[in-house]
Amino acid sequence: MAGSEHAAPAAPDAVKILIAGGFGVGKTTMVGSVSEIAPLRTEEPLTVAGLGVDDLAGIEEKRSTTVALDFGRITIGRDLVLYLFGTPGQQRFWFMWNDLAVGALGAVVLLDVRRPESSFAAIDFFERRNIPFVVGVNGFHGRHPYPPEEIRQALALPERVAVVLCDARERASARDVLIALVDRLIADADGRADEGGRIR
Amino acid sequence: MSEGDAGGRLVRPFTLTGGRTRPSRADFALITTVTAVDPPPARAPRPQPEHLRILKLCAEPMAVAELAARLDLPVSVVVILLCDLLEAGRITARAPHPVTRSAPDLDLLQKVREGLGRL
């Protein structure tokens, strides 16, 4: 750090990964178990106009509501910070995902095998937008009744989408899900480089 | 953008922003990193209390989302305040790392991979 003594601290480069999935599937738990800070929460006020044509059931009696966003941070190095954002679980807040998805490296879709359908919307969302994702199967009390291959087939997921059994409460387990995602991203990047090489 | 109404503002989210509900600049994402300029520029206008709270928090670089959480204000409100500070030359803003699917940054991905491996 040579230079002027008044130099402002250099801002690190920032990237983000989304943690998605149905309501109550363990998104905030996962953010909390790998984050170096206690998960933080921001609340955004929503107007009914902001909800567009989406489902207003349950909020029509309120003049305004808020949508909460939980997030955490992992310092990768002096010059790089990774942020993890839990997407809002209620489906009527899907439009928030669009904003969140911009600039994301990729996503983890957490799945509870007792009610997998609660995470279908998240899988659809990332598939349709071509955003790379992995599926983290969060075992209830850490139990995993189904092997990953069976879950992949049940969800009709292509081979390139990793299905990882995990326990969102465990730091090492949550970390391994993130690593599976980044490995996928690296494999994609390598594949692209190879294709480029062949074309040229 | 010169409003001469420095006096008597109520401390409620959108009165802090002088009634504006949209940022004048679109350059603040959730993970844009904000850093206070130290020392402040010579002719900077006197900041309001909420501006001062932000400047204190981002003496060290801090992401917009984290500022909002620590200030307990909605991101949309914080962004408007940040626009004021940026215009006044009191902060610098670093945009998030650009992510393009067509040309992924392999170096960056490997750094992230190694960082996660150290957790």
Explain the overall architecture.
Chain B: It comes from Streptomyces fumanus. Chain B: This is DUF742 domain-containing protein. The complex is a heterodimer of chains A (200) and B (119). By secondary structure, chain A is α/β, with parallel strands linked by helices. Helix content of chain A is 31%, strand content 27%. Chain A has one domain: P-loop containing nucleotide triphosphate hydrolases (Rossmann fold). A seven-stranded mixed beta sheet of chain A has the order 2-3-4-1-5-6-7, with helices on both faces. The N and C termini of chain A lie far apart (42 Å). Mean pLDDT of chain A is 84; it is low at 1-6 and 48-63. Chain B has 119 residues and is mainly alpha-helical. Chain B has one domain: Arc Repressor Mutant, subunit A (Orthogonal Bundle), CATH 1.10.10. Chain B has helices at residues 13-16, 49-57, 64-71, 75-87, 106-117, and strands at residues 33-36, 62-63, 91-94.
What's the helix-strand series of chain A?
EHEEEHEHEHEH
In the residues of chain B, how many domains can be counted? 1
Q: Tell me the name of the CATH class of chain B.
A: Mainly Alpha
Q: In percent terms, what proportion of residues of chain B is strand?
A: 5-15%
For CATH, the homologous superfamily of chain A is named as: P-loop containing nucleotide triphosphate hydrolases
- Assembly state here? heterodimer
Corresponding CATH architecture of chain B: Orthogonal Bundle
Number of strands of chain B: 3
Radius of gyration of chain A: 19 Å
Helicity level of chain B: 25-40%
Shape of chain A: globular
Average the pLDDT over all residues of chain A and give the rounded result: 84
Major sheet size, sense and barrel closure of chain A: 7 strands, mixed
